[in-house]
Amino acid sequence: MKAVCDRATLTSGVQVASAVVAPRSPKPALGCIKMVAEKDFITLLATDLEVGIRIELDKMEVQEPGLGLVPADRFHAILRELDEDTIELSSTEQETTIEAPGSHFTILGDNPEDFPPVPDFPETGAFSVAADDLLALAERTLFATAKENTRYALNGVLWEVEGKDVTLVATDGRRLSLAKGKCKDGPQEKVTAIVPSKAMQLIVRCLTDTAEAKSTARVVISEKDILVEVPPADGGRRVVYSRLVDGHFPKYEDVIPKDLDKKATMGTSALLAAVRKAALLTNEESRGVMLKFSGGELVITSRTPEMGEAEIRMPIAYDGEDLEIGFNPQYLMDAAKVIDAEELAFMFKGPSKPGVILEGKTFTHVVMPVSVV
Predict the structure, then answer these.
(1) pLDDT per residue over 299-356, tens digit each?
(2) In a domain, 122, yes or no
(3) What's the pLDDT at 373?
(4) Angle 329-337/268-279 helices, nearest 10 degrees?
(5) Which own/partner contact pairs does 251-259 have at CB distance under 8 Å and 24+ positions apart?
(6) Where are the beta strands (DSSP E) in 187-244?
(7) Domain count for the chain
(8) pLDDT score of 93
(9) What SS3 class is residue 341?
(10) pTM recorded for the entire structure
(11) Same domain as 245, residue 270
């Protein structure tokens, strides 16, 4: 293959593809990005056998169609250091050459035929979601997945799709986030899938790059995998592929309290700022802040013997009995950051029961209380 490439476009695509590449693998090909040059675009392929991506790049002048397989880390490092608008790229079976004014690189690679296939988006069976809606659904749940857990189902996000409704849920056992949205042409019978966190992070990254407000993402969920097609603003398709997590997601409906009788309404940004201030005087051993709801005021306090103490006051709407309850401040901040509304509702049953943060009927965040000494 041989092509004249827009360096910025190529670098952006290689950067995203590199996020998929396995840092350590017994198969050298999995540490590489496969390039397929044809017509006026180049397709980048990357996979770790569980998650994969296809990125179509336009603004490419393909002089000789063909294939190339180049180590992702070296390829990305070189492109990042160049500052020319265009570069010349060529590949043979074993090496890739990058040329720019004053620079010449030859990178030893592998045979493109050794690279495993990365599925393309199928022609049928898809439902669609507005790209900005899908991004919001993903961002409102991904942060609540388990980072390290032997229950693999908690290392992913549960998708439920039926008709015009799509619901995403994530939990790490100490908090749970649920986000609801709308889709088009969804299955008439409910389809469920657990999508691994790595794939969700990749979907978020691709959706974030989609600048067009009215763009649409398409999704196909089968028995063992999911494909998400994201059209980026520059016109080239991006297709994220992932195998589904094989496991049972907890019955999340049982985790969401139904008998909450205390409700406080407050400004979203005000709560985020107040909790952030109180969290300044917490540490790993004393990772908790106390929230005291009384009348029209919320008092947030923290205390660490070796650091000191903080007391932050903010106005709220609350007319229930006085209540004191402790939470991990990071969990409260994570939830507040993904709420778009100016105000949120915080509901409780008692000081030893879970609290629930709500934004209308579209976002529910359940957080377990902690003991604050």
Answers:
(1) 999 998 888 999 999 999 998 899 999 999 999 999 999 999 999 999 999 888 999 9
(2) no
(3) 65
(4) 150
(5) 252/158, 252/169, 252/171, 252/176, 252/178, 255/171, 255/176, 255/354, 255/366, 256/176, 256/178, 256/356, 256/364, 256/366, 257/347, 257/349, 257/353, 257/354, 257/356, 257/366, 259/349
(6) 191-196, 216-221, 225-230, 238-243
(7) 3
(8) 85
(9) coil
(10) 0.93
(11) no
Reduced to 3 states, what is the DSSP secondary structure of residue 38? strand
Contacts for 77 with CB less than 8 Å, ≥ 6 apart: none
The pLDDT of residue 256: 94
Q: In the structure encoding, which two tokens stand for residue 301, read together?
A: 């306090």
Which of 205, 234, 253 marks a domain boundary?
Answer: 253
Q: What is the DSSP string of 103-147?
A: EEEEEE---GGGSPP-PPPPSSS-EEEEHHHHHHHHHHHHTTS-S
**CATH (domain of 195):** 3.10.150.10
| pLDDT at res. 16 | 94
Q: Are residues 62 and 154 in the same domain?
A: no
| Rounded distance between C-alpha atoms, residue 225 and residue 259, angstroms | 37
Helix axes 197-208, 131-142, angle to 10 degrees: 140
**Cβ–Cβ under 8 Å, residues 207 and 138:** yes
Residue 230 lies in a domain: yes
Q: State whether 177 and 60 are in the same domain.
A: no
Residue type at 290 in one-letter notation: M
Q: How far apart are CA 122 and CA 140, in angstroms?
A: 28
Which of 38-47, 224-233, 264-273, 280-289 has the weakest average pLDDT?
A: 280-289
User: If phi over 0 gives left and psi between -120 and 50 gives alpha, with beta otherwise, what is residue 49?
Assistant: left
Using the 3D structure, point to which of 253, 286, 307 is the last residue of a domain.
Answer: 253
SS3 of 70, please? strand
Tokens 């106390």 belong to: 290
Nearest to 328 by CA among 169, 173, 204: 173
The strand pairing partners of 216, in sequence order, are 130
Q: Which two tokens stand for residue 69?
A: 């397989």
Q: Which secondary structure element, helix H or strand E, spans residue 266, and what is its range?
A: strand 262-267
Residue 306's domain spans which residues?
256-367
Residue 120 lies in a domain: no
Identify the weakest region by mean pLDDT among 20-29, 82-91, 190-199.
20-29
Exposed, middle or buried, 34 (CB in 10 Å: 0-12/13-18/19+)? buried
* pLDDT at res. 146: 87
